[in-house]
Amino acid sequence: MTDRHVDAETPAWLWRSGEMVPWNEALIHVNAVGHASAAAIFEGIRAYRSADGRSLLLFRLEDHLRRLLDSARICRLDLGHDRDELAAAVISVLRANGYRDDAYVRPWAFAKGFVKEQMVPADSLCEVVVDSWPFSSELAAPDGCRAAVSSWTRISEASMPPRVKAFSNYHNGRLAAMEARLNGHDHPILLNERHKVSEGPGACVALVRAGRVITPSLSSGVLESVTRDTVLHLLSEVMDMPVEEREVDRTELYLADEIFFMGTAWEILPITWIDGLRVGSGSPGPVAQRLREIYSQVVRGETAHYRHWLTEVPTTGDEK
Ligand SMILES: Cc1ncc(COP(=O)(O)O)c(C=O)c1O
User: Is 202 in the pocket of ligand 1 (CB under 6 A)?
Assistant: First the structure.
């Protein structure tokens, strides 16, 4: 394999339907774009540099790939690769690109072939792609973010199930994100069709009130987030804190001592302002701070108890 970096942020290789392909040659015909936008599904997975610097640690790879297969099942797409093959592809992409520091891996799939009509037949064969890029952690960042409840309603199980990680679902989150930015906030929180709290455009949400952590239930119009599941484990198993998964009212956000986002990309991100109201002291609160510390130790392989969540990819040898 030759080195074909386009620029410092662009990897040399991605994995496409069974082979390593130079990143800048992984093109699709313009005719196929219609398919890609209708039912394309994806995953976002982080690989963290281990605390000893000797390997990259893919965080909950199996769980992300399981969710990719779940999304494929709901969308009736046939990936043509099982979980083991996809895991091997993810690892080979990390190796081929020679990453030694934190990286993000994005497997995605879209119906194969030219488009004569917009609707994709059931059980369609897919192209599967595994892409990646460098992506450093923000877990040690000192500040929280400003959030606002969006005027846009979260997509629903009745039309576009939020449980599916489909690119097209992100049109909803994007509209909300743009509105939030235009109004001077960092991120939106969307309410569902029952006017209950659902999630942000790229992360689930939780609040702390009177010593309890409360997060919208999985039927509130949210993605079945791997980070949310991780945080719930850490809260009950390490921090010994009670957790409630249930419908959440908008005004509970206003009375919360702490609020935070949780997701692979945003990790654990404290919310310090909600709809112009200060949350707690206006600085990241103790629960979110402690979670960030524990999470950071877990993803970098410093906590023996959670090693089973990590897939180790050594970085000391010849990566390719
Ligand atoms: C809409 C949405 N909700 C929640 C999440 C968090 O999911 P996870 O923790 O599995 O990354 C994401 C992240 O991809 C997301 O896009």
Answer: yes
